[in-house]
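hey so i finaly got around to running the thing on Probable membrane transporter protein from Saccharopolyspora hirsuta. pasting the sequence first so u can double check i didnt mess up the copy paste, my clipboard has been acting weird all day
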Amino acid sequence: MQAFLIFAIGGFVAQLVDGSLGMAYGVTSTTILLAAGMSPALASASVHLAELGTSLASGLSHWKFGNVDWRVVLTLGVPGAIGAFLGATALSNLSTEAAEPWMSTILLVLGIYVLARFAFRPLRRRQLTGVSGKLLAPLGLVAGFVDATGGGGWGPVATPTLLSTGRVEPRKVIGSVDTSEFLIAAAASIGFLFALSDQNLSWLTVGGLLLGGVIAAPLAAYLVRIVPMRLIGVGAGGLIVLTNARTLIKDFELPGASHTIIYSVIVVAWVAAIAYTVRVIRAERRQPDPDTAEAAEAVRS
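ok and heres what it spat out for the 3d tokens, dont ask me to read them lol
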């Protein structure tokens, strides 16, 4: 029961982050499972099986509220499913000693990307002409492979890339990526179930992650309304970087003196990014809304 509660808390935290950002369920929950001592392949398999439920619920909700572009879902999701199946097979054939630093490195890079993306790269809206399949298909293939081998990465790779184009409404980017994630979770799960048939998959872990995610979903929906998305992204990104840096330090057996230096650099950079983000958010809130200003000017004239 204690293990189930721990994994449920992990799923709760992961869904809280994912529901607020539209990404990072896999990255966050896999980081937690690796820190708990689970092997990389089993951790990624557990996360993707749990995502079958969370992504389905998320996709249905986005569809209900009109946040889904089905062209994006299929053009992105089908190649993503192929990449996820290949990634699951590749990860399952790696030894634990080789897979753990590989996965932690991917998660560390994704954590840095999430942190930097939300701290220093504000979105710029362009004409909403849609995204070409020439971008969607290879993006899906790469994101799906990274997601399966890294235990997460579909959202952190696909969502910011599509948002940065400015050619699709942000709500439809998040909704379409979340909806297509069901295809990625299903393909990765099939790959893991075939490749790990001789290993004991913990359904207790899967159930805990799923239960925690379901409980967190409505709270995340409320949280995203009161806490700036950029601040949540910086907080989650820094936590992912710090946790996976710890794993890599252990795997590469770095000398003790370097631990303090590495942790100090990460914490200082994290705090600085949070402070910078808070300052930017406050400055943006002090600026008058253009539509409101135009309306006030019209009344005065």
